[in-house]
């Protein structure tokens, strides 16, 4: 049990530290200037090459043009065409872009919102606007934290002199978490 606890803890050390620090920043973003956002607006006309054979537009070509011309980044979260207006939205950690364009004239306007480093860390902490690879990191980290907690408890239960004290502290911790959770929800 001790061997598992030590080596899982060492493997998880960086992840636990990352989620601990970003958790603090999540609760206190102003500590490092994390409340600031930069919004950039731009407009223009899409090239005719984005048109499809039916007079509409190929959203992939529109997106690739915007990425190469203006550096639009992030993952496409949705795209749509209602009447003569098309739209594409992008998101990423501490990043969002919204593009609107006229299908007939190909004129477009875009709004890009970029938040500061602290907000990017917040998004990584919560998994907001991240890809599936990062979601795996969060799942693996959660599994390691559970394993560290279980093996740590197991070590305490096997130590006769500390067993009662450890269980009492466990009960106190559980009561505090439940009470604080209840007060938060009420």
**Strand count:** 5
Overall spatial form:
elongated
Tally the helices: what do you get? 5
Structural class: alpha+beta
What kind of sheet is the major sheet? 5 strands, antiparallel
Overall average pLDDT: 86
The percent of residues in helical segments reads 40-55%
Task: Return Rg in Å.
Answer: 24 Å
CATH fold type of the largest domain: TATA-Binding Protein
Q: What is the first-to-last residue Cα distance?
A: 39 Å
Written overview of the protein:
The chain is an alpha+beta fold and 186 residues long. A 5-stranded antiparallel β-sheet has the order 1-5-4-3-2. The mean pLDDT is 86. The longest helix is centred in the C-terminal third of the chain and has 27 residues, at 132-158. The chain has 5 helices and 5 strands, in the order αβαββββααα. Helix 1 crosses helix 3 and helix 4 packs across helix 5. The chain folds into 2 domains: 2-33 and 119-160, no CATH class; 37-115, TATA-Binding Protein. It has helices spanning 2-27, 59-70, 117-126, 132-158, 160-185, and strands at 37-45, 75-82, 85-92, 95-102, 107-115.
